[in-house]
Prior knowledge:
The complex is a heterodimer. Chain A is 78% helix and 0% strand. Chain A contains seven helices and no strands. The relative contact order of chain A is 0.16. Chain B is an all-alpha fold. Helix content of chain B is 93%, strand content 0%. Chain B has one helix at residues 4-55. Chain A binds chain B through residues 35-37, 39-40, 43-44, 47, 86, 89-90, 93-94, 97-98, 100-101, 200, 204, 207-208, 210-211, 214-215, 217-218, 221-222, 225, 228-229, 232, 235, and chain B through 1-4, 6-7, 9-11, 13-14, 17-18, 21-22, 25, 28-29, 32-33, 35-36, 39, 42-43, 45-46, 49-50, 53.
Amino acid sequence: MANTFTRTLAALTGLLMFAAIYMTFVFVPTEAEQGIVQRIFYFHVPCAWVAFAAFGIVAISGIFYLWLGGQIWDDLGYTCAEIGMVFCTLVLVTGSIWARPIWGVWWTWDSRLTTTLILWLLYGGYLMLRAMAGDSPQVARFAAVIGIVAAADVPVIVVSVRLWRTIHPAVLITKQGQHGLTDPRMVATLLVALAAFTALFAWLLLIRFASLRTRSRLAALERELNLIDAAAGDL
Amino acid sequence: MENLGYLGAAYAIIFGVIFLYVIFIQRRQAKLDERMRAMEARLAEVRDHLRRRSAD
């Protein structure tokens, strides 16, 4: 049942991704000012959406872990932090590639770029803690706190282009409260790409979460076996 | 077609990174499955031993 659902989701992700690629490279008109390089936008924004959604789930699962305990919340947080990190890296890299021909530099200490880099560093610290410090409940509690605190940066990134002077385009919601996409085909392409990346996120979440659940069950079985070994003497 | 290289690089990196991440997940899962099989075999051995000991 679970495998059928995962396979169906994988097929749906593939279909949506194909549609998003077709729309990005064939359907959507070229933007007048920036030219062809603006098409990076149709995958750059969905990468940011997945990263923010994943980090949001890290924070929520962290709250539930601290409140209720339960390995499942810790596994969910760890899974989403890892996926969020992958997509946050893609946001920074694709943003940098987009910036080079438009701004003339690979990187600038703009408010949105800087706050996104801070988010990347915070969750980098989270994942390093998980990788280096082992799987004890104390580490899981520390990680939950870091996950919650780090997620506070997400709304700061979202509103940064409206709060501070910035050269980053406010495409989705401008300072005037409108969106900056001039053609309805641009909106349609962005929506399809967002759907494709949401499906991809759900699929990655399912397969990585299943993997972490197996790891947790294995650790529990190993502990049980060690106890039996100790009680029964040398087997 | 100015800046086509930048566009190609961005999309190549996006799909390359996602592909590598999926491979990473699959490899991890394969290793865990292998450990799980070894663990199940060891558990069966322990249960068998305990059963024989209680029968004695």
